[in-house]
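Long-time lurker. I teach an intro course on protein structure, and each term I like to show students one example going from raw sequence to a predicted 3D structure in token notation. This year I'd like something fresh instead of my usual example. Would anyone be willing to generate the tokens for the chain below so I can use it in lecture? Attribution to the forum is fine with me.
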Amino acid sequence: MSVEPQNFLLSVFDAAVAAAQPSLCIPSYLPDLPKGKTGVIGGGKASAAMAAAVEKHYPGEVSGLVITRYDYGVPCEQIEIIEAAHPVPDLAGRAGAEKMLQMVQEFTANDLVLCLISGGGSALMALPAEGVTLEEKQVVNQTLLRSGATISEMNIVRKHLSQIKGGRLARACVPAKLHTLIISDVVGDDLSAIASGPTVPDPSTYADTLKIVQKYDMDLPASALAVLQKGADETPKPGDEIFTNNKVEIIASGRNSLEAAAKGAQEAGITPIILNDSLEGEASEVGRTMAENIGEYREQAPCVLLSGGELTVTVAGSGRGGPNTEFLMGLAAGLKGADGVYAISCDTDGTDGLVDNAGAIITPDTLQRAEDAGLDLETRLADNDAYNFFAALDDLVVSGPTHTNVNDFRAILITE
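-- Reply from a regular --
Happy to contribute to a lecture. Here you go:
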């Protein structure tokens, strides 16, 4: 094999991220000009970059605002960019969401609302249900993040504790025409789950939410639990007439990025094998399972196994890390230093969990280097301390903000 393994893995990750850049995806999906004015709204880690692409390519004048994560802002001239906290919402996100909700209610039937949605929008567009304070909503989000619930389950809870999610933003836009462009970070591209589906019908109910709370034994604030138990003001459902003038399009997804990575691998002379674009499960356990199956692909070496989706972590320890680095720890544990196997796992938004790295890389000598450094993998894994484990080995991948988000990216390179 003529390519250096770590450089190759970084190159296919870069290819995956590049394929989901708003500047590439937005232009061919822009709607026609309306009779009236065009307002731009939205939220998510890619929303500012999406707004910049709209300003550059849309043939008419626009105004509005989008909410993105701190440090993910992109300069815009006509569209206000508000930066807020993620994954735990803050006052900036609340103020931005409230301003957005008030703005869309001023549009008429001749106007167009162009909504730009990407992963992270659920926390960034934080407007809690009446009776729930922002501080209590922050507790809810922290509880969800530590629960082990899937992203879809988390969003069912979030949308029933919000004034803007679960189709409620679409209801506020009536009678204007609504056109939503989405960069998907959700397994299966479920529209109702991406950023908690602010502009699409919500098939879930308050009853579903309570089942999730009970399933994971969540200790929610009393005010939030009261809203869920009361079940008033249910989210708009499929078939509701408010969605008559609503068009929704996914402009980028994890599958697109895996295909771009596969193309890059082929150009490097490595056989790409796309395993799955919608993997879910406990991150470390998925890693161990993948390690068990490596032998099936050795005859095809050099090859690279590509996968996407969103893994989760049930937090039991006090360390730092995220699902991508926990996946790699599970994979390394299962491989036990097997020759010729390298891997990268990163979040395409540039942040793995609550830390500053996108993910990390493992090599055949990861365990040996860890032992030489006095690091016990299983102890660190039990403490959910993947970040410090890989930081000590100098194997973190730090990309900085990528201005997109199509979820996890994993590549396992088998050289022999």
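Some talking points for your students: The chain is about 35% helix and 20% strand. The two ends are 9 Å apart (CA to CA).
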